[in-house]
Amino acid sequence: MSIDPPALTPSSPSGATSGPTSGRPVPALLEADRARQLAGEFGLKPEEYERVLAILGRTPSLTELGIFSVMWSEHCSYKSSRVWLRELPTKAPWVIQGPGENAGVIDIGDGLAAVFKMESHNHPSFIEPYQGAATGVGGILRDVFTMGARPIANLNALRFGLPDAPRMKQVIDGVVRGIGGYGNCVGVPTVGGEVNFHPRYNGNPLVNAMTVGIARADRIFTAAATGIGNPVVYVGSKTGRDGIHGATMASTEFSADSEEKRPTVQIGDPFAEKLLIEACLELMATDAIVAIQDMGAAGLTSSSVEMAGKGGMGIELVLDHVPQREAGMTAYEMMLSESQERMLMILKPGREAVAEAIFTKWELDFAVIGHLTETGRIVLRHKGQLEADIPLAPLESEAPLYRRPTAETPKQPVLEAASVADPMGIEAALPALLSSLDLCSRRWIWDQYDSMVGGQTAKRPGAADAAIVRVEESLEQGGARALAITTDCTPRYCLADPEEGGKQAVAEAWRNITATGGLPLAVTDNMNFGNPEKPEIMGQFAAAVRGMAAACTALDFPVVSGNVSLYNETEGRGILPTPAIGGVGVLEDVAQAVGLALAPGLDLILIGETRGWLGQSLWLREIAGREEGAPPPVDLAAERRNGDAVRGWIREGRIAACHDLSDGGLLVALAEMAIAGGTGATLLPGPASLPAHGWWYGEDQGRYLLAVQDGAGLLAAARAAGVPAQRIGRSGGEALVLPEGASISVASLAEAHERTLPALMAGDA
Amino acid sequence: MQAGIVLFPGTNRERDMALALQRATGRRPAMLWHRDTALPAGTDLVVLPGGFSYGDYLRCGAMAAQSPIMRAIRAFADRGGHVLGVCNGFQMLTEAGLLPGALLRNATLRFLSMDCHLRVERADTPYTGRFQRGQVFRATMAHGDGNYFADDATLDRLEGEGLVALRYATPAGEATPEANRNGSARNIAGILSPNLRVLGLMPHPENQVDPQIDGTDGLPLFESLAEALAAA
C-alpha cells in the first residue's frame, strides 16, 4: 500500500512544528474505497470525510476513522447548534465556570460553589428504558463529581407519549425505575423534576437528568491536561463491548470474528459509581490530580482527545493497559466503548502510588495507560502496533460547523377568551384538569425516588415550587445556606412560538425559585429538538435560543452548562421543541424557604396581571379540545419586577405560602395549594371584564398566588412597588367555595388529582 | 456515649446518621470501615446505617453479614453491646443472625420512598425511653426490600417476649393494612434482641431530627440512646 505524505503539519502548543512528518510511522490503513464507505456508515458526510483525509494526509485506520466520526458527531461536536448557542449569555460576577467544561460552576457564598448540568439520554431510554435512564443519571453524576463536587441533588425532566401508545407504559415504568434504581443506590436524593405527556413523544420520549453538587469554590477540577510526561490514569470499571458506536452494528462484515455484537445501550452499575464518587473525592482532597474527566459519550476517545486538546498537549496511550472486561478487544472497540463508571485523570508525576492506594481501597480498577506528550497528537498503540496518530488541533479546529438554513415558525393568532365558549363551567372543569395527564399528581413517580437521603432535603417533591436542599458544608460552618432547584419547560408553547416558549421556560424556572424565596443564579439547558437538517426545526432551535437569551439577560440568570439532543424524530415526525431549563438559586437561610401548602385563616393575594390568556392553555386543550393560538407572552420587565417583590416579601417573613401560576392558571394553582395543605378557601369573583374561564384558567405569565396573614399590608406594599396585586379570597374550611356559591371539597379534588397515574400504571409492576 | 458508624462501600446514609447522633449527644461518632476487624476501645454503640452495602445485587445485606467487621460486631453484641441497624443495617442484622426473620421485596414490588407513621410498642428500652408507649411518630422510609417476614412461631415469640419495638400505623395509631405499605408481617417496622440492646428497623428516624429540615419526630430515639448510654 502506498501512502502519500501528510499534507498538514500539526502545530505544537508553542507554535513550533512537530518535525518532519513524512517519515512518521503509520497504522494499518483502511483500503480507500472501504474507508469512504465506512465513513458514511459512521455518519460522516462526504465533505466531512474529505477533511479527515486532508488532516491526515492519507486514508485513516479503522480506529482513526472511529475517532473522527464520534468527535465530529452531532452529539460531541455540537456542529449544528454551536453557532446559535453562542448567543446565550454565560457570564455574571457569580459564574466561576461557564459552558465548555464538564459542568457549570457558580459561587453560592461561604466559599462554596454549586456545580451543575443537565444532560439527555433520550434515544437509549426508548430502546431500553431502565438502563437508558439509569445510565443517564450515572453520566450526569460523573459530569458533576469530576469537577470536585459531591453531588447533593438529582432532578429529571421527562416527556412521555400518551400512555396508551405502543410500549409507552413500559417506557414510563422502566424510566422511573431506572432513575430510582440508580439514584437511590448512589445515595444522591432525587428531589424534583417535571413530566409532560404528549402524542408527539410517542416514538421519542425525553429523559433529561440534572445533578447539582457542592465543592469548595477554590477547589474546582477541570479537564485541561498539562505537564509533559505526566501519567494518564484510567480508574473505575473495566471497559467492555457495551455501548460501542452504533455504527459497528451496521458493519459486521469488516470484522473477521462473527461474535454477536452487544447492544449499543450501556449498562449501569450504581454501586461502582458510588465507589467512584467516594474514591475520586478522596483523591481530590490530596494534591495529586492535574486534570480529570469522565468517560461519557464516546468514552476513552472524547476524554483523551478533549483533555489533551484543552491543555494544548499531545497524548500517547498504550491500550494493552486499559482494564478490559473481556478478552480480544480491539483498539477500535476500546476507544469507542461507552462502558459506564469510568474516569480518566492526569496525575502529577510520582503520585501514582497515592492514587492507586485510594482506588484499591475502594476496589476499583486503576491503571496508568499512557502519558502526555509535547507533540500535539493523539497516538494509540495496541499489541505493539500503532493504531492511530492524529493531530489534535485540527481535530477540533477543523471540526464541521454548520449554520443550517432556518425557517421561522409562523405566528399564531391571539385567541381572545371571550371568543372561546366554555363547554362545562368552572366547577366541572377543575377536577377534570387536576386529573389530566399534564396536571395530575406525580406522586406515583416521586414515591419511587429516595428524596431524603443525605438528611438535607428541606422541601421535597410536591412541597414547594422548587426543591430546597440545605448545603451540609454551610451547616458545618455554622450557616444554613440552601439551594433552590427546579426544571422547567412548556413544550406546547415552544411549538406554537419557539421564541416565546424559550423565554417562558427560563422565566418559569426563575419564577419557581423565586416562589420559594430563593435568589435565582444560573441555569443549565437541555435542548431537545428534531432533525436540524429541516429548516423549520433549525428555526425552532434558533428562535428558542433567542427567547432564552432574552430572558436570561433580563433576569440575570446566565447559562453555565448545557446539552443538545437533536434528531429526536420517529418516522419523520419530530418531538415538540423542548428546551428544558434547570435552574439553581440560593437561600442564605433555609428557614426562609416557603412552600405551597395552604393553611387556614390567610388572605389569598394574586400577584401579576391577568388578561385571561387561553391560547395554548391546558384548559383549552383538555376542556375545549383545542390546541391553538399564540402562547402567553412573557413581559420580562414585569416578570422581574413582580418576582423581585415577591422574593423580598418572602424574606421579610410576610408570606406563609407561595405558588407560581403556570399550567392550568389561577384556580389550578389554588387547588394545588389547597390539596397540599388540606385546607379550603372562599373565593371572590373575578373582574366583570373577563369571562370566568379566562380569569380562572388563563395562563398569563409572571404571576404568583400568595397566602398571607396581613392582606391589606401586602396590597399596600405591592402598590408601593408598582406590582399588580389583588385579593382573590381567604383560606379556611374543607372546600373551595366558588364565587357563584358552588363548593368543591378539597378531599374530592385530592382524590381526582392523585388517582390518574396509579390507575394508569396499575398492574405494570 | 461513644458511637461508631460502620461504612460499607455502598453505605449512603452515614452522614444523616452522624448528624442525628451528633445532635442528640453533642459528639461526633467515629466512622468505622467494613474491613476493620476490631471496634475502637470504648465503643458503646455500633450503628449499621442505610445504603447498599456491597451493591446488594445479591440479597440485601447478605454479603455484609460476612464482612470482617461483622465478627467484631457479633462479639460486641454478645457482650451486651448496643447495636442499631437502620434499613440496610436491619437487613444485615437479620442476615447475620443477630435478629430473627428476613426483609423481603416490598409487597408493591416497587421502591417506596415516603413518610410512614410508627407506633412505639414499648417505652422501656434504650431506644425508646423518651417516647410514651403507644406514641406515634413520623419517619421517612426509603427501601425496596423492607417487607418483614418470619414464620408464625417466630412472630409469636417476638410478640410474646415483647420484642416488637415499632409497628407501621396510621397517624392515629391503628396498625391497619393501609398503613403497612411494604406488607410487613403484623405491621412490624422494628424488632429488638431479647436483651433489648440490638434494634433493627426499616424507616429512617435520622431524617427527622432537625426543625430546619423535616421536623424532629425521630429525635427522641437518639436522645433515648444518649440518655441510656450516658447512664450506663
TrEMBL record, chain B:
Enzyme Commission number(s) from the entry: 6.3.5.3, 3.5.1.2
GO biological process assignments: 'de novo' IMP biosynthetic process
Organism superkingdom: Bacteria
Catalytic activity: L-glutamine + H2O = L-glutamate + NH4(+); N(2)-formyl-N(1)-(5-phospho-beta-D-ribosyl)glycinamide + L-glutamine + ATP + H2O = 2-formamido-N(1)-(5-O-phospho-beta-D-ribosyl)acetamidine + L-glutamate + ADP + phosphate + H(+)
Coiled coil: none
Primary location class: cytoplasm
Keyword Transferase carried by entry: no
One GO MF term attached to the UniProt entry: phosphoribosylformylglycinamidine synthase activity
A Pfam cross-reference name: GATase_5
Pathway recorded for this protein: Purine metabolism; IMP biosynthesis via de novo pathway; 5-amino-1-(5-phospho-D-ribosyl)imidazole from N(2)-formyl-N(1)-(5-phospho-D-ribosyl)glycinamide: step 1/2
Role summary: Part of the phosphoribosylformylglycinamidine synthase complex involved in the purines biosynthetic pathway. Catalyzes the ATP-dependent conversion of formylglycinamide ribonucleotide (FGAR) and glutamine to yield formylglycinamidine ribonucleotide (FGAM) and glutamate. The FGAM synthase complex is composed of three subunits. PurQ produces an ammonia molecule by converting glutamine to glutamate. PurL transfers the ammonia molecule to FGAR to form FGAM in an ATP-dependent manner.
Self-association state and partner proteins as the record states: Part of the FGAM synthase complex composed of 1 PurL, 1 PurQ and 2 PurS subunits.
Protein name: Phosphoribosylformylglycinamidine synthase subunit PurQ
Organism: Roseicella frigidaeris
